[in-house]
Amino acid sequence: MLALVRRRESYGYELAAALEEAGLGAIKGGTLYPLLLRLERRGLITATWREGTVGPARKYYRITPAGEVALRDAAAEWHAFRHGVDSILGKGR
């Protein structure tokens, strides 16, 4: 999620659509919005309400400097994990 809001400021529906487009399946609001709230409470993202040209106001999410650090740390952990798995599967040769 941090990587998505790092790309550009987005609202919930855009984030859910991006996750689905990436092949992660349909993400329901009951999963998405609690996650966004946890990230916001941890100071990793900020949220701003904006009036839309059509329809209701939307809450846009943006990554914070602390979120950038958390994303870098998570990416490093993921790469180390992936390297280990690739080695076990014989793809690291």
UniProtKB/TrEMBL annotation:
Highest taxon listed in the record's lineage: Bacteria
InterPro entries in UniProt: Metal_resp_DNA-bind_regulator, Tscrpt_reg_PadR_N, WH-like_DNA-bd_sf, WH_DNA-bd_sf
Domain called Transcription regulator PadR N-terminal: residue spans: 1-72
Protein's name according to its UniProt entry: Putative transcriptional regulator
Source organism of this protein record: Saccharomonospora glauca K62
